[in-house]
Amino acid sequence: IEDREQLRAALARLSHAQRTVLVLRFVCDLSVEQVAEILGCSQSNVKSHCARGLAAMRQTLNGDEISLERG
């Protein structure tokens, strides 16, 4: 439960666009192509928001042992 709370807090610190992309990609398990279609943006934009959002979450979580990567 503590991990979930940490993840929620880290997500809350992201921009709306980054948070939306990460939720669609990793919670809803959608592909980059699907997210781009839903949001009406380019796949490059989705990849950029995803990478920046994950980097910000890693920094926020300071190396906690929570895996943010897909296997």
Could you please describe the fold and organization of this structure?
The chain has 4 helices and no strands. The protein is mainly α and 71 residues long. Helix 2 (16-27) crosses helix 4. The relative contact order is 0.19. The mean pLDDT is 89.
Question: Layout of helices and strands, plus pairs?
Answer:
Layout: H1 2-12, H2 16-27, H3 32-39, H4 43-61
Helix pairs in contact: 1-4, 2-4, 3-4
Please work out how many helical segments DSSP would assign.
4
- On the 0 to 100 scale, the average pLDDT is 89
Main beta sheet: strand number and arrangement?
none
Based on DSSP secondary structure assignment, what is the total number of beta strands?
0
Unreliable spans: none
The value of Rg in angstroms is: 12 Å
N→C terminal distance: 22 Å
Strand content: under 5%
Structural class of the secondary structure composition? Answer: mainly alpha
Q: Helix content range of the residues, please?
A: over 70%
* Helix/strand order, N-terminal first: HHHH
Principal-axes shape call: elongated
Quickly describe the structure.
The protein is mostly helical. The chain has four helices and no strands.
What descriptive keywords fit this protein?
single chain, 71 residues, mainly alpha, 70% helix, elongated
